[in-house]
Write a structure and sequence with these properties.
CATH architecture of the largest domain in chain A: 3-Layer(aba) Sandwich
Distance between the termini of chain A: 72 Å
Number of domains of chain A: 2
Oligomer: homodimer
CATH class of the largest domain in chain A: Alpha Beta
Helix content of chain A: 40-55%
Order of helices and strands of chain A: HHHEEEHEHEHEH
Number of helices of chain A: 7
Largest sheet of chain A: 4 strands, parallel
Shape of chain A: globular
Chain lengths: 199, 199
């Protein structure tokens, strides 16, 4: 009978269910939990429960937040006439790091993907449309990822928003800054040529 | 003010303290916890606490176990005359996967490394010596890792055990199976030549 430490195995299985954690990493992480002090392990467990308990969707932009209304929607100094539509809260955090964008956000929580059972009604599109209808929105920046599903979702949204007669834009495509033409794929190169600008 | 989700940030910090988890992965893992159902998150937190509570050192071999005595030490069909000395419990689990070794283990919980403050008294060496003194041990296989510290620890142990006049062995070094000579480092190649065997 090979040595089996059931409690450790169960912990490794929990880690292995998280994205990007393989079986070996999961076991390594489980061992590292055992090396924590009792207080540290208790702290880890509490932080998980606390995050689950406190974090919810902002009722305005549908982004994750642990406040009543997220700090972007609650910031009165931001430009309330522009809404950037993103796939998830991770994208909001990335965008906020740039400190360039001063408008509001709207998080869809996914992209339309019938193959994976994600139909438009599963996304927070209804909430977006009611924001456009209610507020004085002047521009919608559709910033879904440049994937097939992201593109399809952008097209779908732009058709839905068209009747509101507001400006609808999409983030620019092109060669990533600091990259080399040699490594750019053909579609990106095509988009870069198509979107060329005067200098 | 950039968007900050404190509870999520704190969870990411907990993950980032685990070995091999960078800042970006930690954030990705924190987000994935939020995607769990309440029951799943509760289960994750409980598994952490349970592992910490249940897993302790086997009083015989010092390996981690959630039983009173680990399943190897408790298995009466195993060869009690051979003890393999390993650095940690991870190594025990790797060794058990081979299903070749039928003796017992002894876990040191580290290697001698004065630079990192690990002196011999910090390792489970005393416990090993008392096992050798008490039981009818015929052979000690020193299987610390083939690193500078692992080697030094092996030398130190062999000197300590010598007075007991039992067989002391070390795992074989050589080219890893399935590897290519081209990629083997010089020390490994030297050891492979030194340890060559008749065929």
């Amino acid at each position: 009978m090979a040595e089996q430490i059931e409690a450790l195995q169960k912990l490794a299985e929990q880690f292995a269910r998280l994205p990007g954690i393989g079986r070996k990493s999961a076991m390594r992480l489980a061992f590292s939990i055992l090396e924590l002090s009792d207080e540290e392990a208790q702290g880890f467990a509490n932080t998980i429960l606390e995050a689950k308990e406190k974090v919810h969707l902002c009722p305005v932009c549908q982004s994750l937040t642990d406040k009543e209304i997220c700090s972007v929607c609650g910031d009165l100094s931001r430009d309330r006439s522009t809404i950037m539509v993103l796939e998830d809260t991770k994208a909001v955090l990335s965008m906020e790091k740039v400190r360039e964008y001063r408008g509001l956000y709207h998080v869809l929580h996914g992209v339309i993907s019938p193959m994976n059972g994600v139909t438009p009604d599963k996304l927070r599109i209804k909430e977006l449309l009611s924001r456009i209808a209610d507020d004085e929105v002047g521009e919608i920046i559709i910033a879904t990822n440049p994937t097939v599903e992201g593109e399809a979702t952008a097209m779908y949204l732009s058709k839905l928003i068209k009747p509101f007669e507001i400006k609808i834009t999409r983030l620019a495509y092109g060669i990533p800054v600091g990259s080399d033409l040699e490594y750019a794929d053909e579609v990106t190169l095509y988009r870069a040529i198509e979107g060329r600008r005067d200098i």
